[in-house]
Design brief:
Layout lengths: L2 H17 L6 H8 L3 H4 L6 H26 L3 H17 L5 H8 L1 H28 L9 H15 L12 H16 L2 H10 L8
Length: 206
């Protein structure tokens, strides 16, 4: 990926995060970025292609963040806390319509997102559960295959306005409750004790 395309993707991502996707036109993007539409179309075929490229970049970024967290974390709970902190900061900046826009209007980008979630993210959740069990901070009677799939499905609920209406709940609030529910649900007494000692360093979520 060229540096100019990378800059375009990063700048447009910020625009979509602020205003949503469907409501923003290519004219809006060109105007915001202070470039011509002709220049914009040198990098992407159309808006759908742009959204796909942004989603691919977002998935790659998330993959790098998670892999770094796995490497640097002291244990499985610490790993989740690092990832949660980054995710919460992003959710606080996200326009509520983004998830809906992707699913309804941009099927190619939605497929990129779903493939990433059902492959990489699912695998990471399962690996975290197995790590926590091996470190004796998660209960040894949980089934990582089942819990990881349940967790992935609960993530989808965060963005469902029929379950959590916009204006009544924020993505940030729902995600915080999900992570509290998840970690305290899988942790054993030793894990809960570690979490309790550590939350003072990350009080924003736990």
């Amino acid at each position: 990926m060229s540096e100019r395309l990378r800059d375009l993707i990063e700048s447009t991502t910020l625009i979509f995060m602020r205003y949503g996707i469907k409501s923003v036109t290519m004219d809006d993007i060109a105007r915001e970025l202070k470039i011509s539409k002709k220049t914009l179309y040198q990098f992407v075929k159309d808006k759908s292609d742009l959204v796909v490229k942004i989603m691919e970049a977002q998935c790659a970024e998330e993959k790098a963040i998670i892999e770094q967290a796995v490497t640097s974390a002291e244990n499985a709970i610490d790993e989740l806390m690092i990832i949660s902190e980054i995710a919460c900061k992003k959710l606080q900046k996200m326009n509520p319509s983004i998830h809906y826009d992707l699913e309804k209007y941009y099927p190619d980008a939605w497929k990129v997102f779903m493939d990433h979630k059902e492959d990489f993210v699912l695998g990471c959740v399962k690996s975290n559960l197995e790590r926590g069990i091996s470190e004796d901070i998660y209960r040894n009677n949980i089934n990582p295959d089942i819990i990881s799939k349940l967790y992935i499905q609960k993530i989808d609920c965060i963005f469902d306005p029929a379950i959590f209406p916009v204006g009544k709940f924020t993505f940030f609030q729902v995600y915080m409750e999900l992570m509290r529910y998840h970690i305290r649900g899988v942790a054993n007494d030793k894990g809960v004790s570690y979490l309790t000692k550590t939350i003072g360093k990350k009080p924003f979520i736990f």
